[in-house]
Amino acid sequence: MEAEHEQIETARNGSVKSSWISPYVAQYRWRFAGVVALGTCAACCAVLLLFTSGFLISKSALRPENILMVYVPIVGVRAFGIFRAVFRYIERLAGHDAVLRVLADQRVKLYRILEPQALFLRSRMQTGDVLGALAEDVERLQDIYLRTVFPAITALILYGAAVISFGTVDLGFALWMGLYLLFLIGLLPAITLKITWKQKVRLKKENSHLYTRLTDGVLGIGDWLASGRAAEFVRLQEEGEERADSVRRSLRRWTRWRDLIAQCIIGLMVVSVTLWAGNEAAAGQLPAVMIAAFVLVLFPLTEALLPVSDAVERIPEYRQSLDRLQHLEGKGHTHGVKSGIDETKQLAEAPSESAEMTNRSRDQRIRLRIPPKLRGDI
């Protein structure tokens, strides 16, 4: 009774809380935490692999007298290389397993929302919106975890670990590197989001229009052919696809510029680390064999931070998909099973009302009564 009362109140207020993200995060929180932990371990193994490789290359260049002097770095390179691949494979496997479980639950939920409205669905919403929700929106939600949440959390953990690690060697240099990394993990994604937000929303609308026009055209293809406007339908569809492709080209253009800016920042980081390590080695505060190790460690570290910009860029798409799913969910709450039953009753009562009107009209017909005296004359 309480759940039914809450549902009625929600429909009365016209606001439906978002239940497409948070319930599944709470339900599969341990799986998600395991995926993040595995991703962090894989990234750390990649960082340590390059760090150990740089040290091993520099140490081997000095021609050690005995192989045992570089035996530990050799074992470390092998171990980190193997564990990196193992952790990455398990992380992908566990991540897709968790996300596919969420996707299955979301599909069941969506069909349960649409099923009570099946008889009256076309009178309440366009077929293209339903097709977009079934074919694109639910599929899009799985990218929230795989391409946004998991990479972003892993990048934040690595950012903190990198700053702390640099701080154990030189605090001033750690702050300087923290600013470089903050640009990659914070400022560049914010700029990307600001530039691409409107374009992503526009692309989402264009795709929605394409779905609607395609479904309307396929369902009414006979009318298009009968009216001789088949060429017009093809032309409108091609124009819509061209507008969507134009937005995609603009997004790809910005992506190339963003990658160029990121690579320039990484180049500045490499130069800065090289100069710092060289000065530290010249001052005797850092072994010379560690210069290559500190330089090479930047590449796997920045590789783990760069996906944050791409992850943030997808936020408008997620928001549009969530808005449409919440819209369908709101219609499901407002016009759910109760509404379907009411409309079915109305359809069932329609014949009886029609029969009553027919009987009433029969009773109200004009009747001609002929007296018995005149019947013989007629």
The number of domains is 1
Oligomer: single chain
The biggest sheet, with number of strands, parallel, antiparallel or mixed sense and barrel status, is: none
Distinct helical segment count: 15
Keywords: ATP-binding, Membrane, Nucleotide-binding, Transmembrane, Transmembrane helix
Pfam family, one: ABC_membrane
Main location: membrane
GO molecular function, one term: ABC-type transporter activity
Which key features would you list for this structure?
single chain, 378 residues, mainly alpha, ABC transporter transmembrane region fold, elongated, disordered N terminus
What does this structure look like?
With 378 residues, the chain is mainly alpha-helical. The protein has one domain: ABC transporter type 1, transmembrane domain (ABC transporter transmembrane region fold), CATH 1.20.1560.10. It contains 15 helices and no strands. Helix 6 (127-169) packs antiparallel against helix 12 (307-313), helix 7 runs antiparallel to helix 9 and helix 7 packs across helix 13 (315-334). The radius of gyration is 33 Å and the shape is elongated. 25% of the residues are buried.
